[in-house]
Specification:
Helices cover 43% and strands 17% of the residues. By secondary structure, the chain is an alpha/beta fold. The protein has 2 domains: 166 residues, Rossmann fold, CATH 3.40.50.2000; 168 residues, Glycogen Phosphorylase B (Rossmann fold, 3-Layer(aba) Sandwich), CATH 3.40.50. The strands form 2 sheets. The protein has a 7-stranded parallel beta sheet, sandwiched between helices. A 6-stranded parallel beta sheet has the order 10-9-8-11-12-13, sandwiched between helices.
């Protein structure tokens, strides 16, 4: 069997998902190819030779679709690509996949615009076990076959290892400088902890090619306003496996990862942090609940609850026993629930149900 996974560009969680499922499906005899319309910094992570094509040219895509021998194609996020693939001659099943479309309101508006394309071209819809996506998709597209299951984590290679202890607790953040990732909340949490006398450092991990210029200007202004310039370190385009080093350092420093997104479909950063014994303080962005059971595998705070987030972060900074319990349970939970074998089994069952392969 051969599958094609298509997305805009290799970056962030979609790059991780595509690469991992291609690698693990290959072990089960499924050949996977990746198609991206534009280059992205995440290409550096493809160290196992997953066949990857970068083109937005119709003639080149047509040749790939006609001669690739694909039993099915997965199209992530952009339903217009379904129509494009059909018009370019692909006759096989087309599965539309969404890992998140912003806030619930944004997702509803986007899906309304996608409706003609989904009903005309989608053989099925795939999405993670996220309540707001399930509610919207079941309500709007009950006439299209739907499948929902957890994504996979790289539980074999990505995980905790002992690292030199950093002298200050580190509050980490992974994302883009754009509204949905809510970098403002991250800076406000850091500033509140500093105001309370906590000598924390703030480490940010970003792909700057995806940042919005107007947001960058606002970001610089808020750093100056909050007096955080000497505490922030920005890391750009860190290779995926190297992130396990940084997350291990953050976890052992006494700090935590702050996940401040307004809405998440899955949230790879949170899952990978748990694998590295790095505790997470997360805004209730729906998708993170797949990883975090409050006070057990991590800590949740309500949207806009900056003071509550700081309280939770301070509890981790000050209570070593509580912190260690969160780290241990979180790692074990992520390792078991998001094992690659579970994802592979679910995807193969889905394909079988659709008569593919």
């Amino acid at each position: 069997m051969r599958l094609l996974f298509a997305y805009y560009l290799p970056s962030g969680g979609m790059e991780t998902l595509n690469r991992l499922r291609a690698e693990y499906l290959r072990r089960h005899g499924v050949d996977c190819h990746l198609l991206y319309f534009w280059k992205g910094e995440g290409l550096v992570n493809n160290t196992t030779g997953v066949p990857t094509f970068i083109t937005n040219d119709d003639a080149e895509i047509k040749q790939l679709l006609i001669h690739g021998g694909y039993d099915a194609a997965f199209v992530s996020t952009d339903a217009l690509t379904l129509a494009r693939f059909r018009s370019l001659g692909f006759a096989g099943p087309l599965i539309f996949e969404t890992q998140g479309l912003g806030s619930k309101e944004q997702a509803r508006e986007t899906l309304l615009g996608f409706a003609p394309y989904l009903r005309s071209f989608a053989s099925a819809i795939l999405y993670p076990r996220t309540f707001h996506l399930h509610e919207l998709l079941i309500g709007m597209f009950s006439d299209i076959a739907q499948f929902s299951f957890d994504n996979l984590l790289d539980t074999e290679r990505f995980g905790y290892h002992p690292v030199p202890i950093h002298p200050n607790p580190i509050i980490g953040w992974i994302g883009r400088i754009e509204p949905n990732k809510n970098w403002r909340a991250y800076l406000q949490i850091g500033a509140e902890l500093v105001r309370r006398g906590r000598d924390v450092h703030l480490w940010m991990f970003e792909d700057p090619t995806l940042n919005r210029p107007e947001e960058e200007a606002a970001f610089a202004a808020q750093i100056a306003e909050l007096g955080l310039s000497d505490r922030i370190v920005r890391h750009f385009n860190v290779p995926n496996l190297v992130m396990s080093d940084y997350l291990s350092i953050i976890g052992d420093s006494g700090g935590f990862l702050a996940s401040t997104s307004i809405a998440e479909g899955f949230g790879y950063a949170v899952g990978e942090a748990l694998l590295c014994r790095c505790p997470v303080v997360a805004a209730d962005s729906d998708g993170v609940k797949a990883f975090i059971e409050h006070s057990l595998t991590g800590l949740l705070y309500p949207q806009h609850g900056i003071s509550i987030a700081a309280d939770l972060g301070e509890a981790l900074l000050l209570d070593a026993a509580f912190r260690e319990r969160i780290r241990t349970i979180g790692k074990n939970y992520a390792t078991e629930r998001f094992a690659p074998s579970l994802y592979v089994n679910n995807l193969l069952l889905m394909l079988r149900a659709l008569g593919i392969g």
